[in-house]
Specification:
The chain contains two helices and seven strands; from the N terminus they run βββαβββαβ. With 86 residues, the protein is of the alpha/beta class. The strands form two sheets. The chain has a four-stranded parallel beta sheet, covered by helices on one side. Strands 2-3-5 form a three-stranded antiparallel beta sheet. It is globular, with a radius of gyration of 12 Å.
């Protein structure tokens, strides 16, 4: 499953401002084995109104730049792979 999100927050998880999108995305996440997030670097630290899911269920994040040290450490501790090209 590939999922595009509006926010990636250590506290809030993956978020979106759209209620229907949050519900549908959450259901897709529950039913998917490999969960891959597509998000540009500006989404790290951002939180939209509604939570899709926690970060712990994500397998891979594909982004444009390396995340901050805080996020990099968190992802390493949770075995979340981050792919980017600088």
């Amino acid at each position: 499953m590939f999922l595009v999100v509006n926010g990636i927050s250590i506290v809030e998880g993956l978020t979106t401002p759209d209620e229907l999108e949050a519900y549908v995305d959450n259901e897709v996440v529950k039913k998917s084995k490999d969960k891959i997030i597509l998000a540009d670097n500006s989404k790290f630290g951002a939180a939209a109104f509604l939570k899709i899911c926690s970060l712990e269920v994500i397998v891979t994040i594909i982004t444009d730049k390396a995340p901050s040290i805080e996020y990099d450490d968190f992802f390493k501790n949770k075995n979340i792979r981050v792919l980017y090209n600088e």
